[in-house]
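Re-run with default settings, no changes from the original entry. Doing this only to confirm the output is reproducible before filing.
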Amino acid sequence: MPVKAPSALTRTVASLRQPLTTSAIFLAVIVGLGNLLPLSEDLARWRSLLALVVLLLVLGMVATHFAGRPRPRAPVVVRAPLTGEWRAVSSPATKVPSHGTHLFAQTWAIDLVDARDSVDMSLLGRPRLPEDFAGFAMPVRAGVIGQVVSVHDKARDHRSRDSWASLPLLLVENLVRGLIGHRGTFGNFVTIEASDGRYIAYAHLRRESIRVRPGDDVSPDTLIGECGNSGASSQPHVHIQAMDCSSLRTAVGVPIAFETKTFTGVPARGEVM
């Protein structure tokens, strides 16, 4: 069945989200620093002008969240890429957009955490090594018939940010990662063009665990890498999303469904697959 392309408005809005967000955050930081420093009258005027620009950019960000939203279409069906039991942390079965944003085609993305690992934020827990989690280094398979189109494998696996004490650090880190772009946000990732012409991205993979390279043909059982804690990640997990094109910066998200022995769909937040 042919895949309908997104409208021109949806595509244009998708391409504007990242530059609007980056510009707004960067200029907001400059304005904030300006408020902390004694400025001459001329510089104070420039600060006020920049504050107005930031306001306009923020309004643009809000507008792109509601305008050009991807329309639900037939989901990309993926054979369960993980073995064992995995709990959904952010899921399109619970809310859309699942991560609170359409940026980087995350509209119908899902985060899966090994069910043996706790997902509750402790009060004063220390950041833990990724090796302390059961899900770390668990194998991730392609789940579809297709071809690898892009790979990033150099981001480090950092310590966990799974306590309230580390929440400020997580927020600041994720802000900086968002300024870097999709590589900062997703860490190590693999993007696959599925046989129906749409794309699957697997993110937050373990550093130097990726087994495939661009141009490689894959089947559902092909090992592509391992669960990691790279990019904007509070603990080891796998982020999976479907898109209409290969560019994580400008792609439009599309729904995804997992095919297992017992069901076809996506688990809601807190449910185990």
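The first strand starts at residue 76 and ends at 79. The chain has two domains: 8-66, 76-265.
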